[in-house]
Specification:
Helix content is 49%, strand content 15%. It is α/β, with parallel strands linked by helices and 443 residues long. The radius of gyration is 21 Å and the shape is globular. A hairpin with a 2-residue loop joins β7 and β8 (264-267). The structure holds NADPH dihydro-nicotinamide-adenine-dinucleotide phosphate.
Amino acid sequence: MSYVDEIIASVEAKNADQPEFLQAVKEVLESLRPIVDANEEKYRYESLLERLVEPDRILIFRVPWVDDQGKIQVNRGFRVQFNNAIGPYKGGLRFRDNVNLGVIKFLGFEQIFKNSLTGLPIGGGKGGSDFDPKGKSDREVMAFCKSFMTELYKYIGKDVDVPAGDIGVGAREIGYLYGQYKRITNLYEGVLTGKGLDYGGSLVRTQATGYGLLYLTEEMLKCNGIELAGKTVAISGAGNVAIYACEKAQQLGANVVTLSDSTGWVYDPEGIDLAAVKEIKEVKRARLAEYTNYRPNAEYHTEGNVWSVKVDIALPCATQNELNEEDAKTLVANGVIAVAEGANMPTTFEATKVLQGAGVLFAPGKAANAGGVATSALEMSQNSERLSWSFEEVDEKLKGIMVNIFHKLDDAAKRYGHEGDYVVGANIAGFEKVANAFIAQGC
Ligand code: NDP
């Protein structure tokens, strides 16, 4: 049995109840075959893959808090510190009812390679809770965040582990979490990223994942002789990533015609009215169903999804496994040119194969959405320097990082004889640096 197959079998046996983690490990290891096969003896001797698939540590804790009725509620908190071979653990916190250990492990595992791809000194981690801020009052969200941090603070620090936002964790949640960290430790340090601009946040962090997605997509298209301007784009989600992906796509001259949330999706052939979406999602924290109040000619659907619309480019920006094999076939039949993942693992394994098999340019999330964590690392640098850089300066650095990431994965794919396969390229390019660091640091 090959080394890769052996490790996949052992991960399956040990983590049978964690489908998302298994999916992520399989996807990564399958695409690492060229480099693992070429170095099999050395990697086996080092037990490199065994070490890679096992987190450094997993923290699971009780989060009790008092709701607006005075009743005590209990949620489960997680932090998976996966790998710090190339820098302190870094990765977001997700607050959503479907969060469990398998989901956090999949995200933490992916984060290792994504962070490596940025070229910045950050390791991989992820955390969160099955608490969902949706429908909760600000006071309840604050009570939960304070309690969550009362346990988490013991395990994090600016040179140890630096969490950030993810689904359900935006500026409001980061503010409450940071306030509690500071109160308990009496330290004013860059222990969280995505902070408000008044207390150590970085300009462009809010926009970074969405903007970065478009910078990488534009570069991928350019290197394949295609222009982004004038293209029709479908985006899923209506959160942080989706909104700023839409903004940058529009700035670059593309026509974005869809967005979605967990209750439905909109199709606006004349182009999404982003001011309306920001008011609905960022100010009112309401449902996307309200969009047609602003744009009566747009369609709102609760059945089906955005992938049924005929577009040139598809940018899944909501959540994992939201674009399946059938969706991929529909996109291909409709002539899609490129798919770039704003979310983490939004495209199923089978769907990815359909897209790549049809010659669609496919940029995996660990490369395409790395702009968020890259800008978080820039926030860490500014915090350490006690300086704030201008919007233009950070945006310029972000763009440079995303363009560089694309070339790294393009080169790695070519070096291992898989030209144009950006999944193989991203995994190999991310893996190489971590593998070298692991080996250099010994057992
Ligand atoms: P947000 O919470 O801001 O937005 C998530 C959006 O996706 C919301 O519109 C939400 O709908 C929708 N959504 C969430 N879960 C589901 C679901 N099960 N089915 C359908 N729609 C769903 O999160 P982000 O925009 O920050 O994150 C989106 C994705 O991008 C995630 O995969 C995240 O891991 C990834 N990512 C985020 C980064 C960041 O910097 N924020 C960095 C890198 C990756 P509703 O409003 O109904 O909840």
